[in-house]
Specification:
5-stranded antiparallel β-sheet, globular, Jelly Rolls, 2 domains, 19 strands, single chain
Length: 178
């Protein structure tokens, strides 16, 4: 098990230069990108960065949310509702109303199985593949205390308890890096 806290995260500019992201965790093998978990804020209508060969999943954490549109794509991004979309399609955020929405992002290399992303509370998540649990508030995982914004990576089952939900991301075919 790996337990990361905000002290472990790094901030970096968006690829399109229109904002910043907080990278929570990244996995590469042999110099090849595999997975990235991050947080960012959408503060105005505008284009998202392009990421060729990457599948994306976004979950609005705070704020009213927004709409993502692009060729063949029209998605409403509402709070605590994971939304998946390809990273190499030009998408634009709209309907922000000039209000900030913070979101949790999952990026995976397209050759990997698509991750399963759920918002869970007082639930038991089975073992199988790499499981990332991001605490949205104080909660317990397998009796272990997690503070808001903590991230745990594990190969085991996870029993979540407490008043706050967590975002759980299951990556098939991956395991906790050593």
């Amino acid at each position: 098990m790996i337990h990361l806290t905000p002290a472990d995260y790094t901030r970096q500019p968006w690829k399109n230069g229109k904002g910043t992201t907080t990278e929570l965790w990244r996995l590469e093998r042999d110099g090849q990108f595999l997975v990235r978990l991050s947080r960012a804020s959408v503060v105005e209508d505008g284009p998202f960065s392009l990421f060729p060969g990457i599948e994306r999943n976004l979950t609005v954490l705070t704020g009213a949310g927004f709409r993502l549109t692009g060729p063949g794509l029209n998605l409403r991004c509402d709070p605590l509702e994971p939304v998946a979309f390809p990273g190499d399609v030009e998408v634009t955020a709209s309907e922000t109303g000039g209000r900030q929405s913070d979101d949790f992002n999952v990026m995976t290399a397209r050759h990997l199985p698509r991750p399963e992303v759920v918002v869970a509370r007082n639930a038991t998540l089975p073992a199988g593949g790499l499981l990332a649990v991001y605490a949205l508030g104080s909660c317990q995982m397998n009796g272990y205390h997690l503070s808001q914004d903590d991230l745990v990576l594990t190969d085991t089952a996870a029993a979540l308890a407490g008043d706050s939900p967590a975002i759980a991301v299951r990556f098939g075919g991956l395991s906790v890096p050593v």
